[in-house]
Amino acid sequence: MNTAAISQHESTVPAILITGATGSVGSEVIKQLSDRGIAFRAMVRSANDVDRLSTLPGAEVVLGDFNDPATLAKALAGIERAFVLTNSSEQAETQQLRFVAEAQRAGVQHLVKLSQYAADRNSPVRFLRYHAVVEDAIRESGMNFTFLRPNLFMQGLLGFREPIRQQGKFFAAVGTARISVVDVRDIASVAAATLTEPDHDGKTYTITGPDALTHAEMADQLADALGKPVAFVDVPPAAMRQALAAAGFPDWQTDGLLEDYAHYSRNEASAVLPDVQEVTGKAARTFADFARDYASFF
C-alpha cells in the first residue's frame, strides 16, 4: 500500500465514498480502510447501520438510496473517489447508471466499480451484461475509473452452510468445471488500493484466486478444515432453480444465477490471473485459507 497516497485522504472530511457498505465486499472494504487510518464516507439505507458503522474509526456514515437521486447527491457532496456497488437485482443497471450520473454531476474524479469476471454486453448471463453496460457509461462519463472484475466469491459457499452443517453436503448445477474462486478479503484489498493509490486510472483488474478448483475439490478442502465429511452433489439446473425459489430468490435473480452457473459449468471462469498480487503486493488467498478461517461458520 502506498503510504504517501494514503496520507492525502487522512482528513476529517472523507474524500472516499463506499456504497454497498453493509455487503460482503463493501463491509470488508470499509474495515480495511478503517484499519489503515483512512477517512471514508459509507452510504447505507438503514438508520441501524448508521449507528453500527459509525463506531468504526474514520467512518462518516450517511443514509442514501440508489433509487433517490437527492440522497445520492448528498452522499456524493465533496467526494473525490467513489466505490460503486449494488445488489445484483433487476434494478441494478438502472441504479448504477443513476449513481454514475449523480457522481459526474457532483464532480467526482474517479469511480471504482465492482463489476464481474467476463463482463460483456453480449454475454448470455444477465449479470455480465448489466455490468458491461455500466462500465461503458462510466467510460463515456469522462471520469477516471478502475473496474474490478472478481470471479465467484469463496464466501458464496456460506450460503450453503445449513446443508453443510445438517447433511454434510452442498448442491449446485456446475458439474466438474473448474473456477478460480477468490476470497472477498482479496477483492476488498484490491478495491482499497485502487481507491487510495495512484496509477490505477483506466485499468480493469480481473480478480481471481491462485487455483482453479472444482466444487468437489472445494468440498474436500472444506472437509479437511472442518474435520468432518463434506460432499458436493451436482444437480440439474431445474433442481437448483427449485431450491433458489424455495429460498426466496426473486425470479429475475434466480434466472441470473442459473445463467451464471451455466457459464461456470462451461469452464468459462477457470483462468488464474495475477492481479491480486500485482495490485496489493500479496499473494491471493487459497481456498484452504478460506476454509480454515471460516470453519466456525460451518
UniProtKB/TrEMBL annotation:
Key word Oxidoreductase present in the record? yes
Enzyme Commission number(s) from the entry: 1.7.-.-
**UniProt entry keywords in alphabetical sequence:** Oxidoreductase
Q: Where is the NmrA-like domain?
A: 16-251
Q: Under the GO molecular function aspect, what terms does this record hold?
A: oxidoreductase activity
- Name of this protein: NAD(P)H azoreductase
Q: Name the source organism.
A: Fibrisoma limi BUZ 3
State the encoding gene: azoB
